[in-house]
Design a protein that fits this description.
This protein is α/β, with parallel strands linked by helices. It has 3 domains: 146 residues, P-loop containing nucleotide triphosphate hydrolases (Rossmann fold, 3-Layer(aba) Sandwich); 64 residues, no CATH class; 59 residues, no CATH class. Helix content is 39%, strand content 20%. The chain is built from 12 helices and 10 strands. Strand 7, helix 6 and strand 8 form a beta-alpha-beta unit.
């Protein structure tokens, strides 16, 4: 599979000398869904801003489809990589939503008909048809998040980078946005996200990099979430459903793999109920309480 994003020995320091990124080596293939997770101040946003050339490394390199970001034409990188910021107000600055969504395509010097086609498609996809003449200041936060995504996908990027895409969204808006992101991925768009919304990770990605100024670990979601010391050291949690089923094991519930999402949990429970004649068998034994306390302790990161 073709490499969409590669970084090699990437380093970056802030103007005051503070090291933000150290020896970053990642490879993301075309069509993948990848999360970059880590504690506050880990450098996640800083890394994302290297992928479209907004920031340039102190040393090391970033390649997009094999081309060095620092050497390629700026317009070529913009066409390939779309970045959606955490705060939609950073992306919406024009008088109307139409103008916001048209801004990118117009800067690609596309003809007027093509610009209008892209704006219409983006607004339709995000459920914002009829919002063309509205001002972003009058939208709800969830509508702003969708408008900022529309402003990026109107560029039709091959790589979509999203910084905290589900932050501050209500459950309905969150579910809808995750669905749109996954729909874009099914159409071949490479997805890269940073997020603190650990419960959304299994719905958004297949592979995870743990970043804390350097790459701490890379693996599948299950590999990362099964490593309790790694999670504690980097102030990360696991999905609530994962912890719930680990608790159920203390009551004798048997499952080969702990589910990472509600869908996986429903599948596991349905199969168990079907196998056991419509019942789930749980029992309390003399060590149940002790085992539950061990599970609670396992995923706490405020102890040593």
């Amino acid at each position: 599979m073709r490499e969409a994003v590669t970084t090699r020995n990437l380093n970056y320091s802030y103007p005051d000398g503070t090291v933000a990124l150290s020896n970053i080596n990642i490879t993301i293939h075309e069509g993948e869904r990848v999360a970059i997770v880590g504690p506050n101040g880990a450098g996640k946003t800083t890394l994302l801003l290297h992928l479209n050339g907004v920031l340039q490394s102190t040393d090391g390199e970033v390649k997009i489809f094999g081309k060095n970001v620092n050497e390629a034409e700026r317009s070529e990188i913009i066409r390939s990589v779309g970045v959606v910021f955490q705060d939609p107000d950073d992306q919406l600055f024009m008088p109307t939503i139409f103008d916001d969504v048209a801004f990118g395509p117009m800067n690609l010097e596309l003809d007027e008909d093509e610009v209008r086609r892209r704006v219409k498609n983006a607004l339709d996809r995000l459920g914002l048809t009829g919002y063309e003449e509205r001002c972003s200041h009058h939208l709800s936060y969830g509508e702003k998040k969708r408008a900022s995504l529309a402003a990026v996908i109107s560029m039709e990027p091959r790589i979509l980078v999203l910084d905290e895409p589900t932050a501050n969204l209500d459950p309905k808006s969150r579910t809808e946005l995750i669905g749109i992101i996954n729909e874009l991925n099914r159409e071949g768009v490479t997805i890269i996200v940073t997020t603190h919304d650990i419960n959304a990770v299994p719905q958004l990605v297949d592979r995870v990099y743990v970043l804390n100024r350097t790459i701490i670990r890379e693996g599948t979601i299950r590999e990362i979430f099964s490593d309790a010391p790694l999670l504690r050291e980097n102030h990360l949690e696991v999905p609530e459903v994962f912890k719930l089923f680990e608790m159920l094991k203390c009551f004798g519930y048997n499952c080969e793999e702990l589910p990472l999402s509600i869908d996986e949990a429903i599948k596991d429970l349905t199969e168990t109920i079907g196998t056991n004649g419509g019942h789930i068998h749980l029992h309390i034994h003399e060590h149940t309480h002790e085992e539950m306390e061990k599970v609670k302790h396992k995923y706490r990161y405020d102890h040593h």
